[in-house]
Write a structure and sequence with these properties.
single chain; elongated; mainly alpha; 3 domains
Length: 291
């Protein structure tokens, strides 16, 4: 084997050393440069929602670092203290979780957007009823049942056989499990849209929310319209089956009794509410032909 000339060997050595020199110069000098080199965006101190997301997703890590988890000040201070460190090999993994815009879950992304998940249906209290109300008002949205993994049974006429307990359980399961899934912006928006409470529970609350209180035929100012409505429906079989005395007071009483019905109860949304709108609101506001 022919030996390389000394000059050639020295040339190779110089080239190798030059490569090492260039690599050393390219290597990030500080933790800040390293994180930016990784394509991560450092959080500014004022981005409180983002810090809240960091806190929510990394509480165990933050505790293991001996930091307070009751607020974001401690983790902010840790990042500020270490961000310009030149000896960062032992810091970079933690910093890539704590100091940058790098949420891992749907829940973390929602906290970035809203500061918390408090806008979603909360556990405890009226949770079950809120899921039921949210379900009945969203079940007609195309693709909703497939999204939450629930397919209601249908009768021989193609009408849903309402089972709000089963629907609620499936809906709640989807909402809660989605929070822990990896970030997908479509899923984030779906949870944000569907897993929020409607903000009302009864027919009357919805009427008031819609600004329709003045249209109620139970209002004294609408007595003439009440009489007209009664005259229009008094001979209908559907009304006769529910009327007892056969006068307009019956209609007023029916409206008064049913305005307190809750949407989380069976058939209130599908049966009673359409009748209520037809029977108990001024004609020009009616949205249903059912009576």
């Amino acid at each position: 084997m022919k030996a390389l000339p000394t000059a050639a060997f020295m040339g190779l050595s110089a080239a190798g050393l030059g490569g090492l020199y260039k690599f050393h110069n390219l290597k990030p000098k500080t933790l800040r440069e390293y994180l930016e080199w990784q394509g991560l965006r450092l959080l500014s101190e004022s981005e409180e929602n983002y810090w809240n997301a960091v806190l929510e997703e990394n509480k165990d890590l933050i505790r293991n670092l001996g930091l307070d988890t009751s607020g974001t000040d401690a983790v902010k201070s840790w990042c500020k203290k270490n961000i310009d460190s030149e000896s960062y090999d032992d810091l970079k993994n933690n910093a890539s979780l704590l100091c940058v815009d790098n949420p891992k879950t749907v829940k973390g992304r929602l906290i970035q957007i809203d500061g918390s998940t408090n806008k979603l249906i909360q556990s405890g209290g009226e949770e079950g009823n809120q899921y039921k109300v949210a379900y009945v008002f969203r079940k007609h949205i195309d693709g909703f049942h497939a999204l939450i993994g629930y397919q209601p049974e249908m009768d021989d006429k193609g009408k849903e056989i309402e089972d709000l307990e089963k629907a609620k359980d499936a809906f709640k399961k989807w909402c809660t499990e989605s929070l822990d899934k990896s970030i997908d912006e479509t899923l984030v928006q779906s949870v944000k849209t569907f897993c929020t409470p409607k903000g009302f529970s009864s027919i009357e609350e919805l009427i008031n929310r819609n600004g329709e209180k003045s249209l109620l035929l139970t209002e004294d100012s609408n007595s003439e319209q009440l009489k007209s409505k009664y005259d229009a429906i008094k001979e209908k079989d559907s009304w006769k089956s529910e009327s007892s005395t056969g006068n307009q007071q019956d209609l007023k009483d029916w409206c008064t009794q049913n305005k307190d019905k809750k949407f989380h109860d069976k058939d209130v949304f599908s049966e009673i509410y359409p009748k209520f709108r037809f029977r108990c609101l001024k004609e020009d506001s009616s949205t249903s032909s059912k009576h």
